[in-house]
UniProtKB/TrEMBL annotation:
Listed EC numbers: 2.7.1.40
Catalytic activity: pyruvate + ATP = phosphoenolpyruvate + ADP + H(+)
Lineage, opening ranks: Eukaryota, Viridiplantae, Streptophyta, Embryophyta, Tracheophyta
UniProt-listed Gene3D superfamilies: Phosphoenolpyruvate-binding domains, PK beta-barrel domain-like, Pyruvate kinase, C-terminal domain
SUPFAM superfamilies found in the cross-reference section: Phosphoenolpyruvate/pyruvate domain, PK beta-barrel domain-like, PK C-terminal domain-like
Domain Pyruvate kinase C-terminal: 395-515
PANTHER family, A to Z: PYRUVATE KINASE (PTHR11817)
Pathway assigned in UniProt: Carbohydrate degradation; glycolysis; pyruvate from D-glyceraldehyde 3-phosphate: step 5/5
Protein name: Pyruvate kinase
One Gene Ontology molecular-function label: pyruvate kinase activity
Length: 527
């Protein structure tokens, strides 16, 4: 069984599968990103989402205005305060997204085997045989025989609100298509996806730049989800833009891979980005169905080896309207964890779904069960082999800390860090126990006022598998001149005990800097 991503003790007692799952303070090591929207924006529901295991809140600017999202964010802040649970903020850009403009918002019925014209003239009204778009270059991008998909924004695939079209004629700016299946377009926002075609629009649109430089700055966003990333240059351009916006130079950029163009340039994009989001909804349209799993496994593996977070979307679509996921969805979530993903994004399920809290809870439980049988030993060997020799100083310390923790069956790894890099490196080796990342704030001054760093670094670890941050008192330095920094270690241990992850007689592995040296030590706790 050692070469399998699954670690099952032989012979496995089938009856043990029926034993109830143990509840932990941390629902799962795999993180959950929840998209906040109409069904999940009240303080009460957000509080329940945080308690259920959401650690990153995603604000999707494909719909809703900044005032609407600001109101939701204020409710999130109140929920964080009342639950005392940290939560990071992710701003998701619109990017070069093609949308059907239906000003009246009346349902549009489309009949199979009839014709429909796609036009860039947004002044025209949407009807059963005419659909205005927000893009004028479609006629130049497509040719006869190309496939076009139109679906409700964050379509779940189970609606009768998605339609496949085949281009039959290009006439000036207009594109005439044959409708392949009958459907009714009902709802406010419909997106259009053309299979394997380059759309000549900027990845960071002017509207996105405006939102980032106003709403983004105002709210110190932790992550920027860069929709439709197609080249490494897209990430470089976004980073250059953020670098001019004060504190946002610390914002991490997650490249969202949504089409074959992004897939083709994946390696260069991974090198530039801070993390990757595999947008399986759009990718599932661009790729043949039998290739989707292959891309998922290859992409997650590359992210793991690079030590960058891999985030997967579109997991329990049917929970938008149902209280339980399908068998296939439950298995899919587990496989994402076994593949090595850091986090899972919930889109329609929490945005407009009927059961946002239950969805987060169920996905967390599935993740926790999958983590129990994750073959860490096999993964560790692969990661060490990939890094090669000689290892860097930090990489060596991180891998040693994880190896030591597993050998002594430690209940937790405590890592002191100021930038968060050491803790992320430890998490890269996928320890089977939680990593408590104690972020030590650093004092900075511009000669006019003092500021502390650390909050960004703490929140940004909320998307990394197995990493659980706590902000330390800034009066305690991250680097200690003596072999132990007793006061801050005691605070971390007390926090672990309060969370229920540290018990009497447990062993704890501590990773910290002492002077110019990095030290890994094992502590055995007393009563």
């Amino acid at each position: 069984m050692q070469s399998s991503p699954l670690l099952l003790e032989e012979p496995i007692r089938m009856a043990s599968i029926l034993e109830p799952s143990k509840t932990n303070f941390f629902p799962a090591m795999t993180k959950i990103v929840g998209t906040l929207g109409p069904k999940s924006r009240s303080t009460d529901v957000i509080s329940q989402c945080l308690e259920a295991g959401m650690s990153v809140a995603r604000f999707d600017f494909s719909w809703g205005n900044p005032e609407y999202h600001q109101e939701t964010l204020e409710n999130l802040k109140a929920a964080i305060k009342s639950t005392k649970k940290l939560c990071a903020i992710m701003l998701d850009t619109v990017g070069p997204e093609l949308q059907v403009v239906n000003k009246t918002e009346h349902p549009i019925s489309l009949q199979a085997d009839t014709l429909v014209v796609l036009t860039p003239d947004q002044n025209k009204e949407a009807t059963s045989n005419l659909l205005p778009l927000n893009f004028s270059g479609l006629s130049k991008a497509v040719k006869k025989g190309d496939t076009i998909f139109i679906g409700q924004y964050l379509f779940t695939g189970s609606e009768t609100t998605s339609v496949w079209l085949e281009v039959s004629e290009v006439n000036g700016d207009d594109v005439t298509c044959v409708i392949k299946n009958s459907a009714t377009l009902a709802g406010s926002l419909y997106t259009l996806h053309v299979s394997q075609i380059h759309i000549d629009l900027p990845t960071l649109a002017d509207k996105d730049k405006e939102v980032i430089s106003t709403w983004g700055i105002q709210n110190n966003i932790d992550f920027l989800s860069l929709s439709y990333t197609r080249h490494a240059e897209d990430v470089r351009h976004a980073r250059e833009f953020l670098s001019k916006l004060g504190d946002l130079k610390q914002t991490q950029i997650f490249a969202k891979i949504e089409n074959t163009e992004g897939l083709t340039h994946f390696d260069e994009i991974l090198q530039e980005a801070d993390g990757i989001i595999l947008s399986r909804g759009n990718l599932g349209i661009d790729l043949p169905p039998e290739k989707v799993f292959l891309f998922q496994k290859a992409a997650i593996h590359k992210c793991n080896m690079a030590g960058k977070p891999a985030v997967v979307t579109r997991v329990v679509d049917t929970m938008t309207d149902n209280l339980r996921p399908t068998r296939a969805e439950a298995t899919d979530v587990a496989n994402i964890v076994l593949d090595g993903s850091d986090a899972i994004v919930l889109g329609a399920e929490t945005l407009r779904g009927l059961y946002p809290v239950e969805t987060i809870s169920i996905v967390g439980k599935i993740c926790a069960e999958a983590e129990k049988v994750y073959n860490q030993d096999l993964y560790f060997k692969k990661a060490v082999k990939h890094v090669g020799e000689p290892m860097t100083h930090l990489e060596s310390i991180a891998s040693s800390a994880v190896r030591a923790a597993i050998k002594v069956k430690a209940s937790v790894i405590i890592c002191f860090t100021s930038s968060g890099r050491a803790a992320r490196l430890i998490a890269k080796y996928r320890p089977t126990m939680p990593v408590l990342s104690v972020v030590i704030p650093q004092v900075k001054t511009n000669q006019l006022r003092w500021t502390f760093t650390g909050a960004f670094e703490a929140r940004q670890s909320l998307i990394v598998r197995g990493l659980f941050p706590m902000l330390a008192d800034p009066r305690h330095p991250a680097e200690s001149k003596s072999a132990t920094n007793e006061s801050i270690l005691k605070v971390a241990l007390d926090h672990g005990k309060a969370c229920g992850i540290i018990k009497p007689h447990d062993r704890v592995v501590v990773c910290q800097k002492v002077g110019d040296s990095s030290v890994v030590k094992i502590i055995e706790l007393e009563d």
